[in-house]
Amino acid sequence: MLLKEYRICMPLTVEEYRVGQLYTISKHSHEESDKGEGVEVVRNEPHLDPVHGEGQITEKRVHLSSKLPSWARALVPRIFYITEKAWNYYPYTITEYTCSFLPKFSIHIETKYEDNCGSSENIFGQEKSGCDLEVDFLDIAHDKIPERHYESSEDLRCFSSTKTGRGPLKEDWKETSQPIMCSYKLVGVKFEVWGLQTRVEQFVHKVIRDILLVGHRQAFAWVDEWYAMTLEDVRNFETQMHKATNQKLGRLEM
């Protein structure tokens, strides 16, 4: 297993991002779903955990065979999906990805959100081992993203929010911005197939890094769309988007 920690700062509070995260995931999933591929929502319901308390459990099927690199497409069926299960006990979440066709492949993500600039060390309580855990600090404004994902309206070096007055994000924005929060993500990728393990695990981490960068950029770039929403408002929006996305994929409504 290849384990890394990602830290992504945002010019928001943890409470604000609770709404922004739900809005962004729902909108992005809907926009990315088309022609039978995309994110199908299987269930989304309240969940009570004896340790973490009240939360939400969501199960999705991610249909994306055409988005795989050519060497990976040669290994899997033309039509397949990845199962995503997420337990949201905000500000702590767990997300797992599995693929029935590749039983030795899985992704496990733990996330914690804190109102700081990424300064909390060993937030997941990892035991010390022979090799140090790699920590990758992502800059949503100045790190490069794949060209296909670039949108000028989402360029945070230029974007300014009319509702919050925040932005543009200059070089030193993480030192000068208030409020500021950080998404801490502990990501483990496992692909136990001899001869392919290292290549696949490294590739998946690169994809995850790009997804995290684009997703957090969009959450702030779309802030004026969701900033006035309450948690109830965004839950209703989430339900509407799930139904619309499933219809787009030609699936039955939940």
Description of the molecule:
It is a single chain. The chain is of the alpha+beta class and 254 residues long. The protein has helices spanning 14-32, 70-73, 173-176, 197-221, 223-226, 231-248, and strands at 2-10, 38-49, 53-63, 81-89, 92-98, 105-114, 134-138, 181-191. The protein is globular and about 50 Å long. The model has no long low-confidence stretch (mean pLDDT 89). One of its GO terms (molecular function) is phosphatidylinositol transfer activity. It catalyses: a 1,2-diacyl-sn-glycero-3-phosphate(in) = a 1,2-diacyl-sn-glycero-3-phosphate(out); a 1,2-diacyl-sn-glycero-3-phospho-(1D-myo-inositol)(in) = a 1,2-diacyl-sn-glycero-3-phospho-(1D-myo-inositol)(out).
